[in-house]
Amino acid sequence: MIRNLVGSEWRVPPEDASSLPIFNPATGEVIEHVPLSGAREVDAAVHAAAETFEGWSRTAVMDRVRLMFRFKSQLEDRFEELASIVTRHHGKTLDEARGEVRRGIEVVDFACGAPTLLQGRTLRDVSAGVDQDLYRFPVGVCAGVPPFNFPVMIPLWMFPLAVVAGNTFVLKPSERTPLGGQRLAELFLEAGFPPGVLNIVHGAADTVDALLEHPGISAISFVGSAPVARHVYTAAAAHGKRVQALGGAKNHIVVMPDADPELAVPAILNSAFGNAGERCLSGSVAVAVGPAADAILDPLRDAASRMIVGPGDQQGVQVGPLIRAEHRDRVAAYVDKGVAEGAELIVDGRQEMSRPGFFLGPTILDRVTSRMAVGREEIFGPVLSVSRAATLDEAIAQANASPLGNMATIFTQSGRAGREFRERVDAGMTGINVPIAQPFAFFPFSGWKGSFFGDLHVHGTDGIDFYTRKKVVVTRW
Ligand code: NAD
């Protein structure tokens, strides 16, 4: 059984603690167990973080940054190890895991810029003989609740920026993929950060509720499904906490008749089937405008049927398993539902379900509409829906009809169409001729509508604003 980290102590769970198995999704084997912590364990972690806060928040910025550089160097030294931990208990391919670890480290790179990022501003002589200065202060103990699909990257979206700003942190990793956060915490301590700056409390929904209710926590960063994001936002706000809650997605990829199929087809495959579709930036619906459907459907069908499905640590594999058997079955049920509602199944990945592990191959449904469940709801698996639109206006209207607004992307050779799309699509992360419009660490991860609850997004300068509060000092001598 893995352990919570409270201050400097890796705590053995109580004898009667409930736990959940952690699987290798490529084989279905149980590889570890994760304890389900209750309010008592949460309280211990928050206390450790609160006790450390005063000293840490007064530690010189350059000392905090020096430790962050050391952490960065630990992460680089352990890059391959971290990627293999991700593949082993999440299932994604090693290349995808390497991409995840790299994107996560980039947030640490960004955090190393704290001496600039944490600066305030000043205006002398705001009135005669009076100056005003704005300082940034940490907010206190912060908590982070990541989802299962990026066990290293998403924890790194949260605690490095929080702690470099002088806060202390309690991380509750996903109960399905807790080994990434666990290893990050070990490396964090090895880098020399004082015990108590980062604490880990394992568990599931009840553990999150205990964090939401705990009066010692000032701010919560959450990433997960839309209904839970809404719950976390509401409950955290009701308990007087700062909150940023990132939710689910239903991303549209618009393909214009002038799009270059040689660029668009591989990009759509990458967007829909990379990470086995378990990505909040996965393309879920390809909207073919006018004759674009004729240009892309055959190549999509051929290439998707040829994609290599298998364990993520095997050379050449392009699509790994899903996270759990129940999730795989839920995704497969969407395929049945799509067919029952009138969609045309042109690639069926369900034959992969017979192998050991939690596999489902790339699947494509054509003639999907937004009235169908597959056209409307987040599936979070390797299922691509193709819908049709007569014009760009109609395609934008289809994307905008979704209550979620994480990402939308367009493939076109027309600057005018690209610009119209940028101006009118209601998605906070918009791509033009790219499969995945992921902001780098120095920009905010900026979902809109039901994909985000809060004001300040994760990372970028929004992250710094989220983890600091401002004090304005007015001076006359
Ligand atoms: P999830 O909502 O089931 O779980 C996320 C976290 O919330 C976990 O740590 C879990 O323990 C906790 N949790 C689950 N149910 C809870 C409840 N009822 N009350 C309190 N806490 C609860 O999400 P998941 O399945 O782990 O992750 C997949 C989802 O995350 C997808 O919807 C995906 O789109 C979304 N996601 C969004 C982003 C983004 O940036 N917007 C990024 C990655 C994933």
Q: Could you describe the 3D structure shown?
A:
The chain is an alpha/beta fold. The chain folds into two domains: 4-247 and 451-476, 3-Layer(aba) Sandwich (Aldehyde Dehydrogenase, Chain A, domain 1); 251-432, Aldehyde Dehydrogenase, Chain A, domain 2 (3-Layer(aba) Sandwich), CATH 3.40.309. Helices cover 40% and strands 23% of the residues. It has 16 helices and 22 strands. A hairpin with a 4-residue loop joins β3 (19-24) and β4 (29-35). α3 (79-90) crosses α4, α3 runs antiparallel to α7 and α4 packs parallel to α6 (153-164). The termini are far apart. The mean pLDDT is 98. It binds nicotinamide-adenine-dinucleotide. Residues 145-149, 174-175, 204-205, 208-209, 223-225, 228, 231, 246-249, 280, 378, 380, 406, 445, 447, 451 line the site of nicotinamide-adenine-dinucleotide (NAD).
Summed up, what is this model?
With 477 residues, the protein is of the alpha/beta class.
Strands, helices and their partners?
Layout: E1 4-6, E2 9-11, E3 19-24, E4 29-35, H1 39-57, H2 61-77, H3 79-90, H4 94-111, H5 114-117, E5 121-127, E6 130-138, E7 141-145, H6 153-164, E8 168-171, H7 179-190, E9 198-200, H8 205-213, E10 219-223, H9 226-238, E11 242-246, E12 251-255, H10 261-273, E13 283-289, H11 292-306, H12 325-340, E14 344-347, E15 363-366, H13 373-376, E16 383-389, H14 392-400, E17 404-405, E18 407-411, H15 415-424, E19 429-432, E20 448-449, E21 452-453, H16 460-466, E22 468-476
Parallel strand pairs: 7-8, 7-10, 8-9, 10-11, 12-13, 12-18, 13-16, 15-16, 18-19
Antiparallel strand pairs: 1-2, 3-4, 5-6, 6-22, 11-21, 14-15, 17-20
Helix pairs in contact: 2-4, 3-4, 3-7, 4-6, 10-11
The structure holds nicotinamide-adenine-dinucleotide.
